[in-house]
Amino acid sequence: MKKPILFLSPTIISGDPFIQPYEADILIKDGMISNISPPGSIQITNETDVRKIESKGWVLSPGFIDLHAHSDLYLLTHPEHEAKISQGCTTEVIGQDGISYSPIDNPKQLTAIREQIAGWNGNPSPEDYPNLGLFKWKSVKEYLDCLERNKTATNVAYLVPQASQLAQLYGNLRLLACGPWDQVATPEEIRSQEDELRKAMKEGAVGMSSGLTYTPGMYASTSELGSLCRVLAKEFPGAYYAPHHRSYGFKAIESYAEMLGLGRMTGCPIHLTHATLNFTENKGKAPLLISMIDSARSAGVDVTLDTYPYLPGCTTLSALLPSWASSGGPTETLKRLQDEISREKIRRAVEETGCDGGHGIPTNWDEIQIGSTNHPSIKHYSGRRVSEVAKTVNQLPIQVFFDVLIKDRLATSCLMHIGNEENVREIMCHHTHCSGSDAILHGKGTHPRAYGTFPRFLGHYSRELGLIPLNEMISHLTSRPAKRIGIYPHRGLIAEGSAADLVLFDPKTIKDKATFDEPKQRAEGIRFVLVNGQIAMDEGVLKGGRGGKVLRRRDDGVVC
Fold first, then answer.
1. What is the pLDDT of residue 175?
2. Disulfide check for 413: which of 119, 138, 379, 394 has CB 3.0–4.6 Å away?
3. Which residue has the higher pLDDT, 107 or 75?
4. Taking a C-beta distance cutoff of 8 angstroms, is the pair 145, 204 a contact?
5. Tens digits of per-residue pLDDT, 357-382?
6. CA 432 to chain centre
7. 316: closest CA among 373, 359, 356?
8. Which one, of 554, 515, 512, 521, lies nearest residue 64 by Cα?
């Protein structure tokens, strides 16, 4: 049995923005917050039985909650989970954007999923991890059981994927019902998706995600999505729908309106994930979006949102392709990429007219940074803009684009430098705003948000810019997302009887250090991280702790 832990005189920011920071001693025992008392008042019978941590001048807050994580395999293959633990993240929601590994019906489907999202999590061989039971699941229950059996660094909740944002892959529900084709779902296929959704929810999922920006997710009609949202609303109270909606560029406002309309139409809680307004044409439109959200909330719609505190986004390079070029799956896509007539049609769509894959806006290759690559001949492209690589190799940017996609078999990631700072700040200040990193952890050329999201909220936007006071900003990262998942006040709040998911940090120095050139640098100013009372970071040193729990929705609606 591990020793109890006594934090001496930290400044406690509880997660409740209506409680002002206060100084107290806090005793951690059996994974829970056992006692909160004035400094010096907790009596210990045997001093050697308790670990004391002098904390005066440091802030103790609830562990940070990532409402938009892509750690679906990294929790298993990289159990120390450096990226998240080092920045104070203690709980994650995975299964995002319609992208994950369950439910599936047969090994062939799982193989296709593994190949298509290799840019997000890699495509590890089970033989390299012989004791994990990697990819031996089909159902959501079996996947969550695998996470639980292997023990995770963070607490983890799961959204069942409906329609993938990736250009070659249907989300799991639609894949099972419709296959990987551009077609309207029949009534029978919608009923099949509803049945799969019910099964996944009964196995512990906390809601549903989808990815509607790219094929084949965009093939899902509003009525199809509405049918699934009604199942959540009527049969699984507290569960929510987290859509990656149809566009963050051209007609972005209309895309948000569609999602808010689903909430009005079905009564399903809507969580607008990575709620951004990108590209020049959306500059200054955040107030319009906020007015739409507030109007929906006034009408009784349960709407929340999350953002990451950076301007560039991150996706797969193949996501820039037009939808027709991706229909039928990766084999058909790669055939088109090697056909001269198809290549010219793709070029016109990507560079001249703008296509659905590029958010309806012609691609500017100066804004597209190549992320993680796999093929040896293009490894050195990682971290460089497509336009820069094109100049170096004396080719047109579109030729580089095609070459990378073919050699990497569509598994390359990319960063899109398309954000608007004024929109980021405006949306961040909304009273429903929560934290979500949207972090891809795999590969060398990842986004700095993988290591820097939470410290950047606190160090840059709260302390340096003074955008949101520290006490309130902590609620954005803790209690608000905990309420969305349904785990508050057991998590996301410092109170006696709550889980000991905690972060001890210096409010004067906490800061993100990850950059676009060196994205895997740990943040400064974080001293201790506890997950269910187990120390995961000790005086800034990762301990490899696996104190996390799989958070499942029970039949009575409780998530624990």
1. 58
2. 119
3. 75
4. no
5. 888 999 999 999 999 898 999 999 99
6. 17
7. 373
8. 512
